[in-house]
């Protein structure tokens, strides 16, 4: 069996897609919800840890070390660790997904705040800003492009990782990939694998582009500072 | 299988320790040692082949400073394709190519995942060498080849080595998923743990995989620090790891 045509024959069934549009829509929404929860919870935890790291500089290395450790653990292993404790639940999925956002988000929040020009900080202090007011009204907005760059990477990464949670009974579009794996010899199986893969890539690109839009709307004064 | 009381947790960790203490779990085709050796071999093989495929063109294109747009597109798309999807997608492709289950779909998926980030990082490392430095070398009479081998590659070496490390860690992580398509490796224990609802095997497998990934990162990180001259070290810090 050689040649792309032979390989592609019986690989994809449009009929299956047409008959399962409702399912596909539901799983796409589930995928977005799983991703959204992970990013919001991850951002809140990262912001708290970043504030700690910025206030007490010595904690930055241990905090990023720990976040890096979580980041290095392969996703299947991290979920497998949690299953004996939290079961095949959405909580297990979210603990894992949130863990992977921390390193990227903390690094970018801290780098973003550090990148605020000292002269700006000094002017704000001269104008009478308190430390808290300075952080919320000056430093965070100016760091927003770098923070948003982190959120974009975290969101795209999380959308990919959500597919793995299909193995612990969640999964969004990953459900189709996992189901397709059990039907590997039939076109119904390969179709589901392709649908799950293509749609999760499309979702990642769409979310990334929407976040670029959000970034432009929220930081009209700066269009070129965001690191990729 | 869910145990929330602390007494049960202690008992559970006792069972995990007992599992590791049982010599029968270490030997034989389905033992820890064989699975570990499979995992290490496929990681070395896939990382090495991916490096041979990705690094020379990346270094050359970076030297000529062409193809930047392609590189940026490759990073973004590469990041968006889930590794789980790649591993599963390569199974029917491998079956149709007559390569069957197990090793080949896993190996091909690992190559596909490891090569692009190595390519982009190596490209960025070489293309990012200070233009003034390149010009100064040319002014000193260096040939094009000398600039590449004596200036650009050494200057980019921290980034290139970091790229290889990041890819290797990702390969260790993704090779775990190979157990889903009939291959072995340490993911085997996790998949068996899920299939038989045996949380002791599940947890033990997860522990083995996590330790191997962390050790890979630590060992390659240490090697990197040994090899890279101190003055060039901070350049590699900008490379970020990729999760699988």
Q: Major sheet of chain A, described briefly?
A: none
Please mark out the parts of chain A with pLDDT under 50 across 5 or more consecutive residues, or reply none: none
String of helices and strands of chain B: HHHHHHHHH
Shape of chain A: elongated
The sequence of SSEs of chain A as H and E is HHHHHHHHHH
Secondary structure tally, helices of chain B = 9
The SS-based structural class of chain B is mainly alpha
Largest interface: A-B, 55 and 55 residues
- The total of beta strands of chain A comes to 0
Count of extended strands of chain B? 0
* Sequence stretches where pLDDT stays below 50 over 5 or more residues of chain B: 236-244
Report how far the terminal alpha carbons of chain B are from each other.
Answer: 26 Å
Proportion in β-strands of chain A: under 5%
> Roughly what percent helix of chain A?
over 70%
Largest sheet of chain B: none
- Please state the oligomeric state of the protein chains shown: heterodimer
Strand fraction of chain B equals: under 5%
Shape of chain B: elongated
Give the mean pLDDT of chain B: 85
Notes on the structure:
The complex is a heterodimer of chains A (228) and B (244). With 228 residues, chain A is mainly alpha-helical. Chain A is built from ten helices and no strands. Chain A has helices at 4-8, 14-19, 21-55, 60-72, 75-86, 90-114, 118-126, 131-164, 174-182, 187-218. In chain A, helix 3 (21-55) packs across helix 6 (90-114). The termini of chain A are far apart. With 244 residues, chain B is an all-alpha fold. In chain B, 74% of the residues lie in helices and 0% in strands. Chain B contains nine helices and no strands. In chain B, helix 4 crosses helix 5. Chain B is elongated. Chain B starts with 5 loop residues before the first helix and ends in a 17-residue tail after the last helix. Chains A and B meet through helix 4, helix 5, helix 6, helix 8 and helix 9 of A and helix 3, helix 4, helix 7, helix 8 and helix 9 of B.
């Amino acid at each position: 069996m050689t040649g792309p045509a032979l390989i592609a024959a019986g690989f994809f069934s449009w009929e299956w897609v047409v008959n399962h549009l409702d399912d596909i829509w539901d799983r796409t929404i589930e995928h977005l919800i799983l991703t959204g929860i992970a990013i919001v919870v991850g951002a809140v935890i990262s912001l708290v840890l970043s504030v700690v790291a910025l206030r007490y500089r010595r904690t930055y290395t241990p905090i990023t070390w720990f976040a890096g450790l979580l980041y290095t653990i392969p996703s299947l292993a991290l979920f497998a660790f949690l299953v004996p404790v939290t079961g095949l639940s959405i909580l297990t999925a979210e603990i894992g997904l949130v863990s992977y956002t921390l390193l990227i988000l903390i690094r970018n929040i801290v780098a973003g705040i550090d990148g605020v020009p000292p002269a700006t900080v000094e002017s704000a202090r001269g104008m009478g800003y308190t430390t808290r007011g300075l952080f919320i009204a000056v430093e965070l907005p100016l760091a927003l492009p770098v923070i948003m760059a982190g959120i974009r990477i975290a969101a795209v990464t999380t959308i990919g990782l959500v597919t793995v949670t299909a193995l612990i009974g969640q999964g969004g579009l990953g459900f189709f990939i996992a189901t397709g794996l059990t039907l590997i010899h039939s076109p119904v199986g390969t179709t589901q694998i392709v649908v799950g893969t293509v749609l999760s890539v499309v979702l990642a690109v769409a979310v990334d582009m929407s976040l670029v839009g959000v970034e432009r709307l929220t930081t009209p004064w700066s269009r070129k500072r965001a690191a990729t | 299988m869910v145990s929330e009381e602390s007494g049960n947790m202690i008992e559970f960790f006792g069972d995990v320790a007992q599992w590791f203490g049982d010599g029968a779990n270490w030997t034989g085709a389905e033992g820890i040692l064989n699975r570990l050796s499979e995992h290490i071999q496929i990681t070395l093989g896939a990382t090495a082949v991916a490096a041979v495929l990705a690094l020379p063109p990346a270094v050359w294109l970076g030297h000529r400073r062409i193809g930047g747009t392609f590189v940026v597109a490759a990073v973004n798309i590469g990041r968006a394709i889930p590794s789980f999807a790649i591993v599963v997608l390569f199974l029917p492709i491998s079956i149709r190519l007559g390569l069957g289950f197990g090793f080949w779909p896993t190996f091909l998926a690992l190559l596909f995942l490891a090569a692009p980030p190595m390519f982009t990082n190596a490209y960025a490392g070489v293309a990012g060498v200070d233009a003034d430095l390149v010009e100064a070398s040319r002014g000193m009479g260096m040939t094009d080849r000398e600039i590449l081998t004596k200036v650009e590659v050494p200057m980019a070496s921290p980034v290139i080595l970091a790229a290889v490390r990041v890819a290797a860690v990702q390969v260790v992580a993704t090779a775990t998923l190979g157990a889903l398509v009939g291959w072995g490796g340490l993911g085997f224990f996790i998949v068996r743990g899920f299939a038989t609802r045996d949380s002791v095997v599940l947890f033990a497998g997860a522990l083995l995989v996590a330790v191997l990934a962390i050790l890979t990162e630590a060992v390659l990180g240490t090697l990197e620090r040994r090899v890279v001259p101190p003055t060039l070290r901070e350049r590699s810090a900008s490379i970020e790891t990729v999760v699988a």
